[in-house]
Amino acid sequence: MSDCCAPNANGTKSYALPNAAADDCCAVAPAQTHPTSQTTCPVCGVKGKSVDTQTVKAMLDVSLRTLQAGVYRFCRAESCQVVYFGDRGDVYTEDDLRERVHQKHPNAADVFVCYCFRHTPGSIQRELLFSGTSTVVAQVNDGIQAGQCACEIRNPQGSCCLGNITTTVKRVQKSLVLVAA
Ligand SMILES: [Zn+2]
Questions:
Q1: How far does residue 95's CA lie from ligand 1's centre (Å)?
Q2: Is residue 17 part of a domain?
Q3: Are residues 117 and 168 in the same domain?
Q4: Distance 110 CA to ligand 1 centre (A)
Q5: Residues 152, 55: contact at Cβ < 8 Å?
Q6: Is residue 63 over pLDDT 80?
Q7: Crossing angle, helix 121-131 and helix 162-175, to 10 degrees?
Q8: How many CB atoms lie within 10 A of CB 41?
Q9: What separation in Å is there between the alpha carbon of 157 and the centre of ligand 1?
Q10: Same domain, yes or no, for 50 and 84?
Q11: 80 C-alpha vs ligand 1 centroid, how far in Å?
């Protein structure tokens, strides 16, 4: 078994310039320290959902951060500051983004749940208090039917918000007091 890292027979190692050693088995490539199979957030360990590079690009405040080439995932953990992490070890927090992220503040009245049609927990609560019912899911469905959705560039999670809206409507409903049947 030959080992390129083993000392030569005379007891000395051989050296080469870094460029010349690019294919050397001893060179540590970034891909080896951060394998493309990195599926969990490097900070909180929660499994991330893969997200299109276009979403990360659209969300990033490019005056602050430059996007590295690579494959990105979305960390949905509320307690974790990381929003995106790449397979090369780079992480982006909410401070690097143009939008505040629903998953990081699911109860904040003014953070969008639906980024395309701009619904928030606050607007959902106002409608429930005013009319006793929520039309948000129907409104969003109509918007989707009409082809007005662009979740991949508007929503930090890069996918449709309907599941989050359904959860939020239920949660807001629960938080209110039923005053009349
Ligand atoms: Zn995380």
A1: 14
A2: no
A3: yes
A4: 22
A5: yes
A6: no
A7: 50
A8: 22
A9: 13
A10: yes
A11: 5
